[in-house]
């Protein structure tokens, strides 16, 4: 009986490897299978057009110049994340022999995450009433994004754990500031979106252990972004300026 089970596992393993890359050392970047490459491109490429359309909707719902600028900042960060991610994974899939080009796209993919985080907070920091100290976060969040991008430029893939810590800090610090908002509408959705991002990190770190782990991470990112977009649309733009807190 044990011999039959072992034989089946040996037969199943090569089939599984068709869909999942092998585990790589921490010092190296994983190499997806053909199926995983396609899934990585599709799971973020699908959201490019919806993110552009959704961002345009916020722009047209804007009642003043400050809201228009904020919609533009948020929309650029949102659509930029999906566009750059799709471009990088496409280049990694089809042009992997161009190592310098692939590395540059990978750097840009990592950099844009910092600006996506900053852009996701921009509507709340710009359009909601905040405490005196918290108001400085409107500018600090962009400084953090620039510092994070500089770190990627100079220390790309040098320390993956530190990279993850930087993204986590960037995502958590402004969230703490938002707790000072007198108007708490949207906090539940912000928390739910954050939970999806955090759960997705589990799959982000599971390449080589779970088939399509990176694509699953992409799906969690898309769900988190969708929840945050809904909150921004509902509580900051769709209600009209007369319903919002004074700025």
Produce the secondary structure layout:
Layout: H1 2-17, H2 34-45, H3 48-61, H4 65-94, H5 99-127, H6 137-155, H7 160-178, H8 187-204, H9 213-237
Helix pairs in contact: 2-4, 2-9, 3-4, 4-5, 5-6, 5-7, 5-9, 6-7, 8-9
Outline:
Keywords: Membrane, Transmembrane, Transmembrane helix. The protein is mainly alpha-helical and 247 residues long.
Quote the distance from N terminus to C terminus. 72 Å
Number of DSSP strands? Answer: 0
Basic shape: globular
Q: In sequence order, what are the helices and strands, one letter per element?
A: HHHHHHHHH
The computed structural class is mainly alpha
Helicity range of the residues?
Answer: over 70%
- CATH architecture label: Up-down Bundle
Largest pleated sheet: none
In CATH's first tier, which class applies? Mainly Alpha
Q: The CATH topology, please?
A: Rhopdopsin 7-helix transmembrane proteins
- The total tally of domains equals 1
Radius of gyration: 20 Å
Which residues form runs of ≥5 with pLDDT under 50?
1-13
Mean pLDDT: 85
Number of helices: 9
